[in-house]
Amino acid sequence: MTRSERARPGRALVALVAGALAVSMFTLGTAIAHGRGGSTLPCRDGGTSCISIGFTDAWLEGNTVQLGYSHPFFCAQPPTSMAFSHCEAGAGAQVNPPSGPVVSNMYVLVPLGFNPPGNTLHCPIRGHCIDQPGTIDVSRLVGWGAGNVAFPRHSIVLEEDESFQSTWWPVVLVGVKNLNAWNQIAAAKSADAMDACEEAGNCTTEFATNAFVFFQVLGPGMSPQGPA
How many CB atoms lie within 10 A of CB 204? Predict the structure, then answer.
């Protein structure tokens, strides 16, 4: 659906109601989940004092791994975005980061309309996760009124460790529709479990974005506290 179709006269009321419901589902549970992630890694939630260096957890091949971030996210137009960050969901990137290789996807799992256990959220505070976008335009996905929403609380699934190199990872959004499905992925900690959730209809399809995040999977002997 194009932006002009969403804005057609006669559809404004429907778009308003649908957009409000979709945005509220996209952001539900913020106050309850605020600050309730698992063990807090250094600068997980970002902030000016972090100087773009921090850590989050992620799930990879059945394990919880740590990611080390060292550069702000990258979002460029086109595709057109109404978000302050220039990040857009529902359309893939047409402009890659100016330097450094782009590797496999970073899957961002978003709970839709429920509150997961806090210790299963890798980024539990909307709009605040180290070197990730603070806002995103999701109007291509949910309709009018969602052009500049806070980036949702989420968890991260990877398919590869990419030889533990610091590099750019394309962001792909996947909505999880119910708590049982979320808990199954959290227990399995794998892209295979995410794929199974999609096939069962308990997760949405995968939505491309124009966002890239720069990090490395911490390898053997590496930790957020320094060399092991």
Answer: 16
In a domain? residue 224: no
Q: Which of 228, 221, 217, 173 is nearest to 70 (CA)?
A: 217
The answer to whether 121 and 37 are in contact (CB under 8 A) is yes
Give dist(CA 224, CA 66) in Å, integer: 8
Q: Is residue 185 part of a domain?
A: yes
Q: Say how far residue 42 (Cα) sits from the centre of its chain.
A: 19
Identify the three-state secondary structure at position 14.
Answer: helix
Nearest to 97 by CA among 208, 212, 209: 212
Q: What Cα–Cα distance (Å) separates residue 131 from each residue in 27, 68, 99, 168? A: 20, 10, 17, 12
Of 69, 67, 73, which Cα lies nearest the Cα of 132?
A: 73
Reported as a single tens digit per residue, the pLDDT across 34-90 is: 444 555 899 999 999 999 999 999 999 999 999 999 999 999 999 999 999 999 999
Is 225 part of any domain?
no
Residue range(s) defining the domain that contains residue 210: 3-217
Distance (Å, rounded) from C-alpha 7 to C-alpha 69? 39
The count of structural domains within the chain is 1
Task: Write the DSSP symbol of residue 51.
Answer: T
Q: What are phi and psi of 158, to 5 degrees?
A: -120, 155
- Give residue 38's pLDDT: 52
Would you state the torsion angle of the CA atoms of residues 167, 171, 177, 182, taken in this order, to the nearest 10 degrees? 0
Tell me the HSE value of 15 on the side-chain side, using a 13 A CA sphere: 19
